[in-house]
UniProtKB/TrEMBL annotation, chain A:
Pfam families: ABC2_membrane (PF01061)
Topology with respect to the bilayer: Multi-pass membrane protein
Keyword Lyase on entry: no
Protein name: Transport permease protein
The entry's keywords: Cell membrane, Membrane, Polysaccharide transport, Sugar transport, Transmembrane, Transmembrane helix, Transport
Organism: Mesorhizobium qingshengii
Domain ABC transmembrane type-2 intervals: 44-263
Family: Belongs to the ABC-2 integral membrane protein family.
Record-annotated membrane-spanning stretches: 47-69, 75-96, 117-142, 148-174, 186-206, 239-260
Chief location: membrane
TrEMBL record, chain B:
SMART domains attached to this UniProt entry: AAA
Record keyword Nucleotide-binding present: yes
Name the record gives this protein: Lipopolysaccharide transport system ATP-binding protein
UniProt GO MF annotations: ABC-type transporter activity; ATP binding; ATP hydrolysis activity
Keyword terms, alphabetized: ATP-binding, Nucleotide-binding, Transport
Domain of life: Bacteria
Residue ranges annotated for the ABC transporter domain, each copy included: 6-246
Species per Swiss-Prot/TrEMBL record: Mesorhizobium qingshengii
Amino acid sequence: MKHSYSSADESRLLRDVIRSLLLHRVWFFIGMQDVKRRYRRSFIGPLWILLNLGVYVGAIGFVYGVMFGQDLKAFLPYLMLGFVTWGLISASMVDAGTVFISAEGYIKQFSYPKQIYILRAIVSSSMNFAMGLAAVAVLQIVLGTFEFTGWLLAIPGIVLLYMALLGQTTIFSYLGVAFRDLPHALAGVLQVVFYLTPIVFPISVLKSHNLEFVYLINPIYHLIDVVRHPILTASLAPLSSYGFVFGYVLIVYCIAWYVASRLDKKVVFLL
Amino acid sequence: MTQNFIRLKNVGVRFTGNMNSDGLIGWLARKRSGEPASGAYAVEALKDVTIAIEQGERVGLIGLNGAGKSTLLKVMAGIYMPTSGIAETEGHVCPMFEFATGFEMHQSGRDNIRIRGLLLGMTPDEIEAKLPEIEDFTELGEFLAYPVRTYSAGMFIRLAFAVSTSINPEILLIDEVMGAGDIRFAEKAKRRMFEFMEQGKILVFSSHNFDLLKSFCARTIWLEKGRIIMDGETEKVIAKYRSSQK
């Protein structure tokens, strides 16, 4: 196990990234510990995720469903799935800002590459996502709309979504160390994006007012839709959505690489 | 079997920062005006350091506070990146730098042992196998089931020390960690530390204790203001260092 660190070594970052991915036992374990910690000493534990989700979907679902004249049988799973996926995406931006800050004690005394803390954050937000998806499946079964093919067809979308998440979390975890106000600013911006993204309302509302562009240019809409569309309709999302997401992933990776190569060495000094 | 080594060539570490951390707005303003920020500082923690340490060597580091000993150890551990020059290590590095940080406050002592073990390079099986022995050494008993935020400073040290010294080190880097805990534990820790230091294929440690340096290291490096003042036989280096401090 040879390690070489030089002031001008472009491949070090790449080696660190690969090494981090191989250290899956480490980041998976710490990520799962984070999940465990979140619900320690709470009576119903991770079931809180389901309970909150149920209350949210119940309340918003009925009101908005009636407001927009939706069939509740289709609208409730739509809302729930959109909301669960949104939660994962927003965690990869807002929560990512504190990834390195909360791992300060580790980064300053252990020699593993710091990208393992990025992966750890994805593990813990994924647990919420997995619980949410399970809840959607249960809801679908209750409503009699569950289609196994739909879930299978969602796999390419989920893979693309995770590729994007990895890039986004990387960008915001580095930027979060350098610019401490970023998570706060981002939380505000994301709130706006949430209301502009078809999550609590169907796209037909935007269509009927000639506002299609609002979601067509919104990468988060496409990220959600490549997962949501297949699960709800048992058919693949429009090909254009996959294309859009793929392009988005490429751009995000370029930015992530740029940000990481500029800041990677500085992180430990900025903590 | 590969030979372990640490080789630094013309390594420099320069910290830059800003006292008035002004965040995003300030950064944008500076980018536009091109002026350096007020309160900006730069510290040269290491300057042009060249060292080669080969398998089997035990090296001591001496120098006043702020001389760059910890920075040098952190460069060797791959925690600080050199801002100039090249640092290379071959072998699994085991850093023992801080025993008071890097805990998950809300998790039990036992879970913290597991996390630290993983971060130090143990596999989950190894950790589980060594867990009883580690727990025993900490003497924390039932406290191991409690969240570590209930621990006292000494208890943190016991826990971290027990985990760190239970691994099989190749390159062992130690920063001033002797004398951990209360009197009884300190004695026990010292014995264990000595055993542990014997195991490392390479040992580099900083200390202000000359006797300790003399008994462990044939070679000692004296740092001052980020530069190597002297690198050679421990007796000679310590003698020179002592006379310079009078």
